[in-house]
């Protein structure tokens, strides 16, 4: 009888241990997504200043500037939990921002503008932070996904409603390409 109770207690402790590990992994993934969200917000906040600075020098590049503004607004409208949707829009926005930064090559006075240079440095810093946040999130999502799919933790994950997290990645191969700028 004592052996059966000890075995039952061991199973219960194992379930608690696995459940707590799943909760920790889910929280890590959610915290990591929050980090991405913060960096994307920082980038979105930089965009209006960048656009205003470029407008004064590149007035006939109106379509490029309007595209960036439209994509920024679209990115802001994506629901918080929609990782794939947000990744797709942010990929297009990153490519459009690359075209704006490339405009500086065609406008020497813009390239020398102190505000533009500061905004460009800030944007480069934020882009680096986004990359680090994305890698951190993808690692946290991977850890959770392994636990959700691995035996025997998948039995406990299924019983308590734990689900896999999607990766934050660029779905469209064209978004991975180096932006081309034509004048």
TrEMBL record:
Membrane topology, record value: Single-pass membrane protein
Residues making up the signal peptide according to the UniProt record: none
Matching InterPro entries: LemA-like_dom_sf, MamQ_LemA
Subcellular location: Membrane
Keyword check for Plastid: no
UniProt keyword Phosphoprotein present: no
Keywords from the named record: Membrane, Transmembrane, Transmembrane helix
Pfam families recorded: LemA
Homology family: Belongs to the LemA family.
PANTHER family according to UniProt: MEMBRANE PROTEIN, PROTEIN LEMA
Name listed for the protein in its UniProt record: LemA family protein
Species in which this protein is naturally found: Rhizobium helianthi
Lineage: Bacteria, Pseudomonadati, Pseudomonadota, Alphaproteobacteria, Hyphomicrobiales
